[in-house]
Amino acid sequence: xxxxxxxxxxxxxxxxxxxxxxxxxxxxxxxxxxxxxxxxxxxxxxxxxxxxxxxxxxxxxxxxxxxxxxxxxxxxxxxxxxxxxxxxxxxxxxxxxxxxxxxxxxxxxxxxxxxxxxxxxxxxxxxxxxxxxxxxxxxxxxxxxxxxxxxxxxxxxxxxxxxxxxxxxxxxxxxxxxxxxxxxxxxxx
Length: 189
Hints:
It is a single chain. The chain has one domain (4-188): MFS general substrate transporter like domains (Growth Hormone, Chain: A), CATH 1.20.1250.20. The longest helix has 32 residues, at 111-142. It has helices at 4-9, 14-20, 25-53, 55-76, 79-87, 91-104, 111-142, 147-157, 159-188. It is mainly α. Helices cover 85% and strands 0% of the residues. It is built from 9 helices and no strands. This is MFS transporter. InterPro entries: MFS, MFS_trans_sf. The chain crosses the membrane at residues 27-46, 58-75, 81-103, 115-141, 153-173. It holds the Pfam family MFS_1.
């Protein structure tokens, strides 16, 4: 959920922000199409990466890369650089590594429910982020801020959430690495 809240607040509102800074609606639609195609292509590959490197390692590095890139985006970049950050397809790595961890640490009877609950938490976090954006942007605009300034202020306020999400993911990955043999033994029983 810690990655999902700022994702909802920043990433899922980024296309509208790009329109506010001057990109055409058709272009932002093309960016969204690219993101979906990248997800589909990468889903086929990332499972093998999780098998080779371990899902906790993939989760850690993808959360760090995702949070870092979107924190840079949040600072307020020239529009073309902001677009480049939008098209870097890191999100599928977060999804697949999260599902792989749920599959790894649940037995066969719990697996589907575990993956479903993980998705529920992620979507709940994204919803919280979007809702926070709705209220914060409305408030900032009511104070007389321009749309661009309101977006950039709100995005910058999310940088600490990205840092917290990356830090927690690092802690979680280390904890999983330290206890992996015990958990594997418990699951195999």
